[in-house]
Amino acid sequence: MKNTIAVLAVSSFLAFSACKKGENTTGPSDKTEAAQPEKLVLDSVKINDSLKIADSLTVRFTSKLLVFPTLKDKKLLDSIYFNHQGIKDFSKKGLEVYLDNDKNSYFNSVKSDSKDWISDISYAQSWYTSSHMNLISNDNGYMHIEYVQSAYEGGAHDNYGFSERVFDLKNNKKLELKDITSMPKAKLESILMKNINKEKSGTTDSEGDVNNSEMLLVEVIPATNNFYFDQKNLYFHYSPYEIAAFAAGDIVIPVSWEELKGTLNTEFKERMKIK
């Protein structure tokens, strides 16, 4: 009888130990799964407001910021909001407060400065400042954001410009041109000049379409960090007046992966599945 009780006691102890071991095994597994990168979550904050400075002048402020609740790396976030210095709180509420302060700062600035020249405006005008962040793509861990800024504060026409930024979410950094290709700058710039007319300008005159090359203001098209890409090409984006006359508008010049063959970064090539 004593032997039977001893056997049961040992069996119970082993069963209990097995359960505890099972629990310990599950714990680390859960932690590993939780450490996996979170799926990108996207939100936005917008503001659109106007202020009448005088009978002859109304100003409008429009802005949109993207919100990334799952991105926590401060250096990466500072880079994403590079054109909005001083952001400390990257939450939706924090960005709403930032935009409201930015709007008030713009209105107060125009209001204060206008005291010196408002009487010189002879007809009613509407001025504005506008900035928008747009998510273009998020593929293979590369997130492409386009920043569009425009403004009108008197003169013949408004002004606008584009900033293209690609972020490597795997390595928490802004992608640089050297992360894509090792091609010497001079050679890449010669390809840009060769490809200047690959995309139509949309500008016409009495004789028909006007090529981008006919409106160039520079002898060398710089290979800047204002780029983005897809499965076919690397694209360089130039704002008005950057390389050509305002009539040319913004210009996009493609450079195919074939033209960059032999110079592509190995990691980039593999992640983009470029053959």
TrEMBL record:
Q: What InterPro entries does the database record attribute to this sequence?
A: DUF3298, PdaC/RsiV-like_sf
The chain positions of domain DUF3298 read: 184-258
Name by which UniProt lists this protein = RsiV family protein
Task: List the source organism.
Answer: Chryseobacterium pyrolae
